[in-house]
Write a structure and sequence with these properties.
This protein has about 325 residues and is an alpha+beta fold. The protein has 2 domains: about 140 residues, Rossmann fold (3-Layer(aba) Sandwich), CATH 3.40.50; about 170 residues, Tumour Suppressor Smad4, CATH 2.60.200.30. The chain has 8 helices and 16 strands. α6 packs across α8.
Length: about 325
């Protein structure tokens, strides 16, 4: 254990975020209760999370050297090759941590099983006393997770555990050129979503459900027959919405275009497709300002994507490793 560190990743609670905004607990309470909400829920969540972090530190300190880092410092933290990462929080914290580690095993801990379902949080704090030794002895199974990666022509890059979003900061239309294989077209839309297998139950699922619902509606069928309207996304969604083979370790990604708008200068045919090792997705920005690419819903951690910038999206060269 002399070379190994146990990295404990934590986040701010909702109460701590409110205190940052309103300076004191009393002012935060006044704001929440004025809106008719139950402030005691914020207090209980905060207390339970603090207790979980304290217990986790106690458990881990008996097993090795512990270093605690906050969520906002994870992007700039350098993880050692032999480190073991323990994340105490919600699923989103696990995902946002996973994209910054390399081969280190990650243990997801649910601080409050009565509050959070925790798809990526199979363990409780009390489990750490035997889970971590198992990981050290390599006697614990690991689940590999495929990551997405976007690289810009200026050398910048960003990983995505669940998904990547390419579009505008605001709700105005994004303009860009998109290319997949031999297909290429100019588009205007509310953005592109690239999903991993892990993200298939999130944003990707909602987009597919919406497209499938439109296709099955009588109004759409009538419109299609009368005006010859067709949608690649809708057609693909019929065969994809209910699929179960898009798993966490699937060696491919899917992209979907949100609200594509066909016009004299833009098309809406290349709006859904599969990305794999031999077929990356290429996007060239045509947005003079406010073009962005961010991952896993963290809008603060983004790449600027303005006119002329070329993005290549494909499978990451690394995979996440979740302890199960």
């Amino acid at each position: 254990m002399t070379e190994r560190k146990l990295i404990l990743v934590k986040r701010r609670t909702r109460l701590e975020e409110l205190i940052v905004r309103y300076n004191t607990v009393q002012q935060a309470q006044f704001y929440i209760e004025r809106l008719g909400a139950d402030f005691s829920d914020y207090i209980q969540e905060d207390q339970r999370y603090r207790q979980s972090i304290q217990l986790a530190q106690q458990q881990l300190s008996q097993l090795g050297r512990v270093q605690v880092i906050d969520r906002e410092h994870v992007p700039n933290f350098i993880f050692g090759e032999q480190d073991i990462v323990v994340v105490v929080g919600q699923d989103g914290l696990v995902a946002n941590t996973l994209k910054y580690v390399t081969e280190q095993p990650l243990i997801g801990v649910n601080p409050d099983p009565m509050r959070w379902d925790g798809v990526l949080l199979p363990f409780t704090v009390e489990d750490l006393s035997f889970i971590v030794p198992d990981v050290i002895r390599k006697q614990r199974a690991l689940k590999e997770v495929t990551l997405a990666k976007v690289e810009l022509n200026d050398g910048q890059y960003l990983y995505g555990v669940n998904d990547l979003f390419i579009g505008r900061k605001t709700h105005v239309s994004a303009r860009y050129e998109v290319r997949l294989g031999n297909s290429i077209e100019n588009q205007s839309s509310s953005g592109i979503i690239v999903s991993t297998g892990m993200g298939s139950t999130g944003w990707f699922k909602s987009v597919m459900a919406g497209a499938s619902g439109i296709v099955s509606s009588a109004a759409w069928q009538k419109l299609s027959s009368e005006e010859g309207v067709a949608s690649v996304a809708a057609a693909e969604s019929r065969g994809t919405a209910g699929r179960t083979d898009f798993t966490w370790d699937s060696p491919y990604l899917y992209f979907t275009v949100r609200e594509p708008f066909p016009s004299r200068t833009t098309a809406a045919n290349l709006v859904f497709g599969k990305i794999h090792a031999k077929q990356p997705l290429h996007i060239v920005s045509q947005m003079p300002e406010d073009g962005v690419i961010f991952s896993d819903g963290v809008e603060q951690d983004f790449l600027e994507f303005n006119s002329g910038v070329h993005a290549t999206i494909g499978l990451a060269e690394k995979r996440g490793r979740l302890v199960i």
